[in-house]
Write a structure and sequence with these properties.
The complex is a heteropentamer, with 1 copy of chain A (347 residues), 2 copies of chain B (283 residues) and 2 copies of chain C (275 residues). Chain B is built from 11 helices and no strands. By secondary structure, chain B is an all-alpha fold. Chain B has one domain: Orthogonal Bundle (MetI-like fold). Chain C has a 6-stranded mixed beta sheet with strand order 6-7-8-3-9-10, sandwiched between helices. Chain C has a 4-stranded antiparallel beta sheet with strand order 2-1-4-5, covered by helices on one side. Chain C has 275 residues and is α/β, with parallel strands linked by helices. The chains are: A alpha/beta (347), B mainly alpha (283), C alpha/beta (275). Bound molecules: adenosine-5'-triphosphate (ATP) (2 copies) and magnesium ion (2 copies). Chains C, E: Keywords: ATP-binding, Nucleotide-binding, Transport.
Chain lengths: 347, 283, 275, 283, 275
């Protein structure tokens, strides 16, 4: 079966398997990175052939990487921290989603206008064992309320299930990530968002975690992968529609049997939403620098948040988690050329 | 489908006036030919018209008309048939492995009580473990490909079959075993000539449960981490907010289960006829 | 040992204005078994006879001639192919409550003790258990199973199971008693003893009894009339009135008159060559 | 556990020399008393020492020593016992509902062939539908609380029981039914006095499968959206990358399954003794 | 109709240097059934006798005295409690291949046709199916079941099932034949016919036969010796040599000598009062 991965003719010598930390394929990292990198030949240029597997969540993805089923995964940074604490031989080698993707949303006519209004209400989270629960708790705490006392968390999942819970009044607000909201809105439900307080600024969501073993054997391979990945991101940011079309070609299963023409617009919007969280909010793509960098301050915030969420129980020495040494070489690419390719792209 | 008679139908031994299996269907004889579609139509109609009335959104429970539309679209899509084929393949292979293992192990367990005592606790213990939670292990052991799904299908169809095989092989009539023993039959011959035939109703019950569960197992396996198969398609349609499409897939799964069930029941009537017939025409 | 009958009034039959002479009435009865995997078997052909109320009638005939089939049709558990079958005026289309039966194979329930098995008809018909339990015990004592009342069927010998089956058929004192070779698995002595007991019970209760037996002397000893069936398909070869005085003792069987009856019935069997 | 004799043991009718159920355990008589723990020790030892040798990290399959440690930690936690209680409650209620419904429906189906023809296709069709995929619906219908998990447990234990009940009620011996019919038994009496006892081996097989699956169902239900229960704890430990803790929970689930299984088997020996005994002491 | 015996050489027995006079040897045999839910039953007490090679011996005794138990111990499917049981010199601890048995209940396999049921011993012992199928058909013809060879057991009457069971025990021509009331479900005529046939087969094959029967005349007609058992627990009451010339015809039973034997055995039964 024609399934995901390197469909392009010019295959490199080195193989890299990317574990997608989600059971489904969608307009997110696999499209912006894998599909575009493959279709545009960025991986081939680096002598790489890239394949994907779907792991059910960040923990499973980290396990897949650590046990050799995959080489690298864009996984939740908190999970990567937890993995390291659990002595999993995995190292973060670059950032991916740099802007906080989680938000609280309510129905447009909801009386809830600020965090404080959540008192006595119910907030829908994906599940109590997912990133959305610690986020909701942190949000509630910041609003001066006590989670699980003043506000009840209810696991509602995403998509239709979450929508139903909100519109039926089973919950008063949702705590989901941006792209999940886009899907809900595109399906016809209007939402209003509460502003995230500044505490969330700088907490990292997805980052690239690589197998320590592979890394020790061939660092260069990962440098080349990161470079191609960031180039692909830049391309996608510049021409998300083209990226989405490549996504359909490389991962036809994204469509789930639907007609591409009927989905391209909404999927492009979803992809844009994802890219928005994964790339700097300010400036023009041409000015974006230091792809994948995570500052020590960001790490500190992320560690504190992860600890608060209970995923780790002590701060982890940075050098055990973080190996930024690949980034300089990974950033060594001609951004203008990529932008040009994006502008001139013809399917 | 011919079924066992109800109590007061025991008297109903084939009277000459009543043709047993006429070529032409007499609707009074086979009311199910009207009833099954009737129930279907009523259910579907209720579904179609009640849903909007109850204010249930299409994104929770789409109306049949939408689903049929989505189904049509799926059936016209080549990729869908690939997904279907993958799931069918996983289910069948998993079913055969699960049921085969259960037959062998069930035989050993029912025949050698030491094997039972040594193995059974572990089998039961393993059976209660939610395999979905073991996903990372499964995937490490069996890869992200089709194998892990086959294993899932096999594991979930294994236990119902095992329990039924054990119970069935034990249900054999002691007098019949004694009879064969006197004539010098070996354990194997007794097994083949008495235990196995006696166990047939149990074995077919196990097969029936097993085939239905193996489809379930394959689909759940696809939930864990797959790139193809109907389980994957379910996740994808759900993710895409294509709830009608998701229901279309669910319907395809139901039809798969039904077909499998009827194949098993057909085999039962072919290969275990005596139970049925001696029950119907007992005297 | 005395066995009181419970004297239960026979409500069902009493309410039907039936002919006492044709208490059981069978006319032009035919039975064809239509097996799915083999040829149809013509079991009974054009059977016509009737039984008086309170009569003791025996049916004899070669193995496979349809005796069991006839009893089961009377019991309402096998459907006739054509003809008329009436008990106490009622068309037999299913089991009638006033009928009891002893089966050719004992058919005890393996999950019940002997006593519980004997109590089945009492339980089924919702009769007073405490009262009938005593009667059941008495019957078990009569057939020599007193010490086995709490045993399970698999602990009994073949003949003991059959005796338990007889107790079960008698316990609720049915107005019509159908017996399918009830004494087949018993030794000659037990059999004769049981014959005498059966006659005593019958005399006390006034039951109508149809007995299938392989023993011609037994048929003669017990019956008012003996119906002789021909080999399959069973037809009535002869119906013989047994004109021996009642009450009968076993010694009557050494009389010449009894011998004549036995010889007369035997002749039918001699005529029927097997294969 | 007393089990059916193997063929050449049929002769082995309780000889006076051999005490059937001695108060003191003779190990030659009951080798399982050594074998089961022995197998356990060997398995655990192999696990403990092979895992590092094979280069399988603790983060995929932790060593038993780690798991025991994590287990100890869990058992010392009051919250854990709450989770356990929730899951046990869900499983038991779900099991009772599932199995009860299966008994009632199975009875109707096996007794009235029209019910079978009208209902059975829908039941089979529903059974193949992966309930996990229906989660949104379940949650909408049954809420986010314990009910949806109970329903899940009930639904998954229902089908194996149903199939076994149907098969079992049909397996009743026609002669016995005729016997009761002659004595004027009603359908209900025949059911109670013959069909049900005859179906016992089937019913117990169904119960055995059902109880094990109902635990599975409750846990899977808790995966979908729960705030408590062992399934939730599994998700939580997994999310926290506490793989040893996760395995500790899995072990608790196994033990639950084992206990349930042995309760069912014990009940079987108590309530369906005749099958066992007549088999052992047949003559 | 002629029934050749297949003349299969009896390898197993030939290789054992056994006493022809004590071909079957039973000494101080005891059997106690130890039921779990009821009191133990003493079925056989101190049984001692032996059977010559080629002898025809009958066992009679009241119902429940342990006849079936005795045969099953000889067949190696019930364990003795104490005592010695040998066939052809070999201690009986399990079934021996040269032994065939007719069961009190026919015990046919419901998933096999009548012919397939009769062929069970042939299949089990790996004998030449084609050759024995003919013999099986001949035996079925002899017992009047020729047209039922493709029927299933539930399509047969009780007596027909029993006859099929007899064919099954005879088909592989076993050196030792154990028969547990083989003719109990047959009418008098079929029974006598089967008796004559059995004697003919026995004369041709030289089998050693142990027959349990409830019919005293049958025992006298067929046997070289009759073993009379007392009521439970079965003890040997008497062993009677039947000194009637062979070959015997049915007419021998009207002779005085036969009558004397029958009366002598009957006396044992009269002595044993039931309950
Ligand atoms: N499996 C068993 N468990 C317990 N007791 C048994 C068992 N089989 C037989 N018995 C008892 O042993 C005694 C002898 O039984 P057996 O079947 O040998 O009698 P039998 O002489 O063949 O009688 P019948 O002529 O009625 O067939 C009986 O009292 C019976 O209750
Ligand atoms: N359920 C059945 N299906 C087909 N044929 C049957 C069935 N029951 C009985 N028969 C046939 O009907 C005929 C009469 O059988 P029935 O049992 O009435 O004989 P019977 O007179 O009782 O014989 P026996 O004395 O041997 O018990 C037999 O040829 C038998 O093969
Ligand atoms: Mg009969
Ligand atoms: Mg006996």
């Amino acid at each position: 079966a024609e399934s995901g991965g390197a469909a392009a003719g010019e295959a490199g010598d080195d193989k890299i398997t990317v574990a997608i930390a989600s059971a489904v394929t969608g307009p997110k990292e696999e499209v912006a990175i894998v599909a575009v990198g493959t279709k545009m030949g960025y991986f081939a240029e680096e002598g790489l052939t890239v394949d994907t597997i779907n792991a059910d969540g960040s923990v499973a993805a980290a396990q897949a990487v650590a046990s050799g089923s995959a080489d690298i995964t864009p996984a939740d940074t908190g999970s990567l921290l937890a993995a390291v604490q659990g002595n999993v031989p995995i190292k973060t080698i670059g950032g991916l989603v740099q802007n906080w993707p989680w938000q609280i949303a309510v129905l447009p006519d909801s009386p809830i206008r600020s965090g404080a209004d959540l008192k006595g209400k119910k907030v829908g989270v994906i599940s109590l064992a997912s990133g959305s629960a610690p986020y909701a708790r942190a949000f509630i705490r910041d609003a001066g309320l006590q989670p699980d006392v003043d506000v009840e968390l209810v696991p509602v999942g995403v998509g239709a299930q979450a929508t139903a819970a909100l519109t039926n009044g089973e919950v008063d607000a949702l705590a989901l990530y941006g792209q999940a909201y886009t899907i809900i809105e595109l399906a016809g439900t209007q939402l209003r968002y509460l502003d995230n307080p500044p505490v969330f600024q700088g907490i990292r969501s997805l980052s690239f975690g690589a197998s320590q073993r592979e890394l020790d054997q061939d660092r260069e391979k990962f440098v080349r992968f990161l470079r191609a990945a960031y180039k692909s991101m830049l391309f996608s940011a510049a021409n998300p529609k083209a990226a989405m079309q490549m996504g359909y070609e490389v991962f036809p299963q994204i469509l789930g049997g639907a007609d591409p023409a009927s989905r391209i617009d909404s999927d492009t919007k979803t992809l844009e939403k994802w890219l928005e969280s994964a790339t700097p909010l300010q400036g023009e793509p041409a000015d974006w620098k230091s792809w994948g960098d995570i500052t020590d301050e960001e790490w500190a915030k992320t560690q504190a948040y992860t600890k608060e969420a209970g995923q780790i129980n002590a701060e982890i020495p940075l050098d055990r988690v973080w190996d930024p040494s690949l980034l300089e070489a990974a950033n060594d690419f001609d951004a203008q050329l990529v932008l040009k390719q994006a502008a001139e792209y013809q399917p | 489908m011919t079924t066992a008679p109800a109590a007061d139908e025991v008297t109903d031994e084939v009277a000459p006036a009543k043709p047993t299996r006429g070529k032409r269907f007499d609707l009074r004889e086979r009311p199910e030919l009207i009833l099954v579609p009737a129930v279907f139509v009523v259910l579907v109609a209720a579904w179609e018209f009640l849903i909007p009335l109850l204010g249930i959104g299409d994104y929770v429970l789409p109306r049949p008309s939408r689903i049929v539309e989505a189904l049509g679209q799926q059936l016209g899509n080549a990729l869908f048939w690939q997904h279907l084929e993958v799931t069918v393949r996983e289910s069948i292979i998993g079913f055969l492995i699960g049921v085969g293992t259960a037959l062998v192990l069930g035989t050993a367990i029912s025949q050698v009580s030491l094997v039972e005592k040594t193995l059974m606790p572990y089998i039961v213990a393993f059976q209660t473990v939610p395999k979905v939670a073991l996903a990372p292990l499964f995937v490490v052991w069996f890869g992200f490909g089709i194998t892990s799904k086959i294993v899932m299908a096999a594991v979930i169809s294994f236990f119902p079959m095992l329990v039924n095989v054990i119970e069935g092989l034990r249900a054999a009539d002691a007098d019949r075993i004694q009879m064969l023993t006197v004539f010098g039959a070996s354990k194997l011959q007794i097994f083949r000539m008495v235990r196995l035939p006696s166990a047939m109703p149990f074995i077919f019950a196990g097969l029936d449960i097993g085939i239905v569960f193996s489809i379930l197992g394959a689909v759940v396996g696809e939930f864990i981490g797959a790139k193809e198969g109907l389980g994957y398609l379910l996740l994808q349609t759900n993710y895409n907010f294509d709830i009608a499409g998701m229901f279309a897939v669910l319907i395809v799964l139901s039809v798969l289960g039904l077909i499998a069930h009827f194949i098993i029941r057909f085999a039962q009537r072919k290969f275990a006829f005596w139970a049925e017939e001696s029950r119907v025409i007992a005297a | 040992m005395s066995l009181r009958t419970t004297g239960r009034p026979d409500v069902d039959t009493a309410s039907v204005p039936a002919d006492e002479e044709k208490w059981i009435n069978i006319a032009s009865l035919n039975k064809v078994y239509q097996a799915r995997r083999s040829a149809p078997t013509h079991a009974l052909s054009d059977i016509t006879f009737s039984v008086r109320r309170g009569e003791f009638i025996s049916v004899v005939g070669p193995s496979g001639c349809g005796k069991t089939t006839l009893l089961k049709i009377l019991a309402g558990i096998v459907k006739r192919s054509s003809g008329e079958v009436r008990i106490a005026g009622a068309d037999v289309t299913g089991p009638l409550p006033q009928v009891g039966m002893v089966f050719q194979a004992a058919t005890l329930l393996p999950w019940r003790t002997v006593l519980q098995n004997v109590m089945v008809p009492v339980e089924v018909q919702g009769l007073d258990k405490n009262r009938y339990r005593e009667r059941a015990r008495e019957l078990l004592r009569m057939v020599g199973l007193a010490e086995f009342e709490n045993s399970y069927p698999y602990e009994l010998s073949g003949g003991m199971q059959q005796r338990a089956g007889i107790c079960r058929a008698l316990v609720h004192d049915p107005a019509v008693l159908l017996m399918d070779e009830p004494f087949g698995a018993l030794d000659a002595m037990t059999r004769e003893y049981m014959n005498v007991e059966l006659l005593r019970i019958w005399a006390e209760s006034g039951q109508t009894i149809v007995l299938v037996t392989h023993s011609i002397p037994e048929a003669v000893f017990l019956s008012d009339r003996v119906i002789v069936l021909s080999p399959r398909p069973g037809r009535i070869a002869e119906i013989i009135d047994i004109d021996l005085d009642r009450p009968r003792e076993l010694s009557v069987m050494s009389s010449d008159r009894a011998g004549v009856y036995v010889d007369r019935i035997r002749r039918h069997f001699n005529a029927s060559v097997i294969d």
